[in-house]
Write the structure tokens for this entry.
Amino acid sequence: MFEIENLHASIEDTEILKGVNLTINMGEIHALMGPNGSGKSTLANVLAGHPSYEVTEGSIRFMGEDILEMEPDERAQLGIFLAFQYPTVIPGVSMANFLRMAVTNVRNARAERAAGEGEEAKKMTPREFRKLMREKMALLKMDESFATRYLNEGFSGGEKKRAEILQMALLEPTMAILDETDSGLDIDALRVVSEGVNNLAGDDMGVLLITHYQRLLNYIKPDHVHIMMEGRIVQSGGPELAAELEAKGYEKLRGEVTATA
């Protein structure tokens, strides 16, 4: 479903990604771990189409389609979603209005794309959106008053991350990239957010879960774990790889990577 091959990317003439290779199949959860500065968040931003990053080599294919030349909104319409490590505060814009615009635009664009391919698809009406939003908020155990607040303004760390998961629930992506969803969360908030991700993950969605810590993987069980250092993936394995890192840290692996380089 999602194939990254020999991906190199730079920002302000500084190369950050130095040959990333990764394949994610439908229904799989992949955890990406690594020390600070290894390129994890850069990878997330490049996959979502952040304009500050320049891809200098390699390819990104989604459902067989090359997406490198696509704008972020076009990637979202295809079904790619990015949950930010540090969600933006937007005073004066309610959660409900923001979500309605995002979901309506993405769903309607998908409907037009399907119609262009000869498939039957309906655009989303305001009534359908309100019904869907209530259903997803109930699934995530969120009070409906949450939707009337301004986007992330005065939100705790846990509330910001729950708002990101609510967006994911409403947009129903095929590929979800979660950039350090556990950042700044206490144990209770971590449990709530993880439960939300687990409720949404399934056979119709692939997940790339970026994290520093094993603790998130105690709640969200990955199928594959990858370690990123110096702009590339240097080791892959099963869930046991995360437990090994928790016990031994990165130093030994860092020494091996440096020696190989």
Summary: Residues 2-186+205-260 form a domain with the Rossmann fold fold (CATH 3.40.50.300). The chain has one domain: 2-186+205-260.
